[in-house]
Amino acid sequence: MRGTIMKGIGGFYYVNTDRGIIECRARGKFRYNGLSPMVGDEVEIKLERDQGIIDEICPRISQLKRPAVANVTQALVVFAFNHPEINEDLLNKFLISCEFNNLKPIVCFNKLDLADEEKKLDVIDMIRNTGYEVIFLKAKEGYGIYKVREKLKDNITVLCGPSGVGKSTILNAICGKELMETGQISHKLNRGKHTTRHSEIIELENGFIVDTPGFSSLDIGHITKDKLQYCFPEFIEFIGICKFTGCVHHKEPDCAVKSALYNDKINKRRYDFYVKTLNEISSKKKY
Ligand SMILES: Nc1nc2c(ncn2[C@@H]2O[C@H](COP(=O)(O)OP(=O)(O)OP(=O)(O)O)[C@@H](O)[C@H]2O)c(=O)[nH]1
Ligand SMILES: [Mg+2]
Ligand SMILES: [Zn+2]
């Protein structure tokens, strides 16, 4: 039998098949292969004494490590204007991770009702310069949710972002039902309380959406120096014009990316984040 892993909890996988959801365990061989089933995986399963066993994992069209999901086609990268505050580096890391994994990101800024002063406009300008699509939401009131709904058709969309930004609230607003539990923000720490504990796929009329647990750090140290530049879509049109082949757009002369930066075609904060990441990769420092 074939099916899709809808969620995984404590070593059990819940596989959606023609015969409904079947609770499965994974065959031990996966452990030895270093391959483990992920939410979103297409799998072959067998029934052994009423227990479902995952036998094979079909090749993945995409794979994100954090959040751990397979076969998604796009990511809604969610941050909140406030409670918790936007972590700009983390936002950039999510975007880089999406590019590296060939996923289309859409940036959602939620809790527009809590947006106060102008300092956040810089972040919005920065994202606009990248060419990524931006959606503003007040998920609790349902404001802007129709724009997210429009993006879901024929896609498997993953919601990712820190804890407490409103990912589960967005999912519930899309479905019109309280399918996922939502949690309060810790006022002392101004961050979420990790309400969602496991990733879960929800089937919609026209696509699938995956809710995931929030997290506050992301390691992109596995991306090599020469590949990093391709994770910045706004650099691409300039990369081929640099004087030196193999230019990493840092200290080299006659660099088209740097010219674009000086001519305000590339956002300075994004470029600075690029250099910072480049240096971190060079010094092999993990973060
Ligand atoms: N003011 C305001 N609060 C919101 C909005 N959207 C969500 N919230 C609140 O933010 C809190 C956290 O929302 P969740 O949906 O649980 O956040 P999450 O991203 O799923 O968090 P984790 O599951 O911990 O990763 C809840 O108290 C929501 O009611 C909004 O647009 N405005
Ligand atoms: Mg949640
Ligand atoms: Zn260059």
UniProtKB/TrEMBL annotation:
Positions binding Zn(2+) in this chain are C242, C247, H249, C255
Q: Which cofactor does it need?
A: Zn(2+)
Cofactor binding description: Binds 1 zinc ion per subunit.
| MF (Gene Ontology) | GTP binding; GTPase activity; metal ion binding; rRNA binding
Question: Which sequence ranges form a coiled-coil region, renumbered to this chain?
Answer: none
Q: What keywords appear on the UniProt entry?
A: Cytoplasm, GTP-binding, Hydrolase, Metal-binding, Nucleotide-binding, Ribosome biogenesis, RNA-binding, rRNA-binding, Zinc
Where the record annotates domain CP-type G, the positions are: 61-218
Q: Which GO terms describe its cellular component?
A: cytoplasm
Subcellular location(s) of the protein: Cytoplasm
Check the record and name the InterPro entries matching this protein. G_CP_dom (IPR030378), NA-bd_OB-fold (IPR012340), P-loop_NTPase (IPR027417), Ribosome_biogen_GTPase_RsgA (IPR004881), RsgA_GTPase_dom (IPR010914), RsgA_N (IPR031944)
Q: Does the keyword Ribosomal protein apply?
A: no
Q: Give every EngC GTPase domain span.
A: 70-216
Could you confirm whether the keyword rRNA-binding appears in this record?
A: yes
Q: Where does GTP bind?
A: N110, K111, L112, D113, G161, P162, S163, G164, V165, G166, K167, S168, T169
Per the record, the GO terms for biological process are:
ribosomal small subunit biogenesis
The EC category is: hydrolase
Q: Which EC numbers characterise this protein's activity in its record? A: 3.6.1.-
Q: Which family is this sequence assigned to? A: Belongs to the TRAFAC class YlqF/YawG GTPase family. RsgA subfamily.
**Job of this protein:** One of several proteins that assist in the late maturation steps of the functional core of the 30S ribosomal subunit. Helps release RbfA from mature subunits. May play a role in the assembly of ribosomal proteins into the subunit. Circularly permuted GTPase that catalyzes slow GTP hydrolysis, GTPase activity is stimulated by the 30S ribosomal subunit.
Q: Which PANTHER family match?
A: SMALL RIBOSOMAL SUBUNIT BIOGENESIS GTPASE RSGA, SMALL RIBOSOMAL SUBUNIT BIOGENESIS GTPASE RSGA 1, MITOCHONDRIAL-RELATED
Subunit structure as annotated in this protein's UniProt entry: Monomer. Associates with 30S ribosomal subunit, binds 16S rRNA.
What protein am I looking at? Small ribosomal subunit biogenesis GTPase RsgA
The gene is rsgA
